[in-house]
Q: What sequence folds into this?
């Protein structure tokens, strides 16, 4: 038996939009690829699954520069595979449904390139699940047909058999049918489909910007008049559309239709962004500060070399925990070097960062401020003990000053450098300027100052959610008062404060 060669090209269905709907197989194969060729309808957030160093090429977007032709895409796949590179071809939706899969497979077969096809969630299934538009119903439709509203330019004869489609005894789902609706909608009616037939137009199915419009077949041409609805959108036609019991769970989420800007450093933003996406928001990310290694690592290395001198190691951020423990490991030691040293943290996120490494905080204040941490330490520590403060390159001196004033020995080391991001992403800036961002999260004083420098008066076009009174004070002093302030000074507290205000 001949064993087939391993695939060099993976044709992966990316799903309808929500990156969480990418299949596990698709995710795993992205991680193997040397080259990722992706359609603009494939959410770029899926590219986080690509391996570091992989080449990522967008194949173009309608109305935004040049769109690569199918022959050009085929040639790129084949050339890369012949060079021994593994290729992931990431296609919107399910590539087997109006995704020109057959053409790509034929080209690979002709070139004798081994490949694998990975199905994805098609847009019609997403529209049914996320927009509550039934495709089938036991009383209204026992079958469904997927129809393309756009035919090949090379095809001869009638584009669609509208007479047959008008008599189809179930639901019709038109892909790519927005601009051609003035042709096929009247044609269905002319061939016997009632003008009163229920219709749903679903745009951006599965995404927080999902939009749905219910109408009838007779009114559809007017609803899809030029400029009214931009692709991508599906048109679902049939009695099942009006069936009772259609779910609206997706649009009921409390932040549905809202846009939230997350401004944390890139390393910390994803989990926070995911929380707002769970709540239904469309999330943009614009780091206000960038985190990197300290400019001079020698003070940290020196402190680690004499770690036994310290009675306490005090962390004022989760970043500090990660950088400190990474430096400890790089020095050739492990957690055993901490021995009897006690550990203190500023708040629950920092405590959780320790816990992820199997370490417990001995002290965490009830109120997550430097003043409260200093008071808690002075209560828990013996007089004259030596404190090692692990901190960022900038920040308040409160902890150092209060411990020193009380007679403690204090050594401070910079575990990471914090710098302002000088300029925002152009698209984020445009959305803020146009009033399309509802909330901006502000989770530290440093972020507050950077946002003021970055956006200036444009900050007034959105509501600001501050993590603490201290952060809110920085905003207020700059002339941009926060709309809400978290009751608990955590990322979840910020989310709860926004929820309470909507």
A:
């Amino acid at each position: 038996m001949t064993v087939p060669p391993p695939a060099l090209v993976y044709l992966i269905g990316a799903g309808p939009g929500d990156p969480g709907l990418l299949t596990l197989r698709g995710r795993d194969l992205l991680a193997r690829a040397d080259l990722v060729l992706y359609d603009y309808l494939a959410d770029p957030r899926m590219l986080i699954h690509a391996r570091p160093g992989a080449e990522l090429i967008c194949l173009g977007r309608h109305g935004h520069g040049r769109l690569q032709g199918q022959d050009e895409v085929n040639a790129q796949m084949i050339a890369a595979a012949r060079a021994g590179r593994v290729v992931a071809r990431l296609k919107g939706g399910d590539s087997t449904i109006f995704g020109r899969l057959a053409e790509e497979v034929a080209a690979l077969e002709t070139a004798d390139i081994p490949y694998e096809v990975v199905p994805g969630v098609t847009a019609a299934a997403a529209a049914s699940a996320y927009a509550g538009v039934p495709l089938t119903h036991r009383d209204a439709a026992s079958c469904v047909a997927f129809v393309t509203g756009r035919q090949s330019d090379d095809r001869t004869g009638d584009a669609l058999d509208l007479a047959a489609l008008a008599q189809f005894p179930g639901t019709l789902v038109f892909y790519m049918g927005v601009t051609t609706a003035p042709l096929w909608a009247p044609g269905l009616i002319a061939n016997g489909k009632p003008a009163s037939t229920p219709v749903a137009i679903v745009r951006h199915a599965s995404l927080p910007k999902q939009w749905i419009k219910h109408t009838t077949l007779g009114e559809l041409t007017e609803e899809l008049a030029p400029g009214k609805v931009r692709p991508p959108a599906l048109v679902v036609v049939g009695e099942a559309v009006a069936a009772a019991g259609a779910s609206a769970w997706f649009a009921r989420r409390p932040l549905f239709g809202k846009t939230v800007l997350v401004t944390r450093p890139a390393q910390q933003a994803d989990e926070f962004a995911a929380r707002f996406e769970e709540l239904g928001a469309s999330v943009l990310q614009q780091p206000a500060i960038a985190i990197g290694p300290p400019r001079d690592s020698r003070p940290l290395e020196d402190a680690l070399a004499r770690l036994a001198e310290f009675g306490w190691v005090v962390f004022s951020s989760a970043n500090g925990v990660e950088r400190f423990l990474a430096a400890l490991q790089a020095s050739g030691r492990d957690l055993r070097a901490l021995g009897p040293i006690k550990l203190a943290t500023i708040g629950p996120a920092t405590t959780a960062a320790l816990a992820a490494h199997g370490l417990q905080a001995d002290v965490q204040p009830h109120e997550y401020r430097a003043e409260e941490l200093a008071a808690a330490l002075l209560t828990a520590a013996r007089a004259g003990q030596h404190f090692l403060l692990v901190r960022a390159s900038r920040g308040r001196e409160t902890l150092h000053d209060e411990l020193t004033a009380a007679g403690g020995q204090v050594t401070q080391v910079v575990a990471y450098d914090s710098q302002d991001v000088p300029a925002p992403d152009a698209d984020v800036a445009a959305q803020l300027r146009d009033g399309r961002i509802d909330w901006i999260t502000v989770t530290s004083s440093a972020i507050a100052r950077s946002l003021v420098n970055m956006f200036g008066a444009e900050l007034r076009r959105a509501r600001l959610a501050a993590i603490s009174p201290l952060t809110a004070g920085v905003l207020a002093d700059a002339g941009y008062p926060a709309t809400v302030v978290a009751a608990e000074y955590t990322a979840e507290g910020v989310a709860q404060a926004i929820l309470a205000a909507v």
About this structure: DSSP finds 17 helices and 20 strands in the chain. The chain has a mean pLDDT of 92.
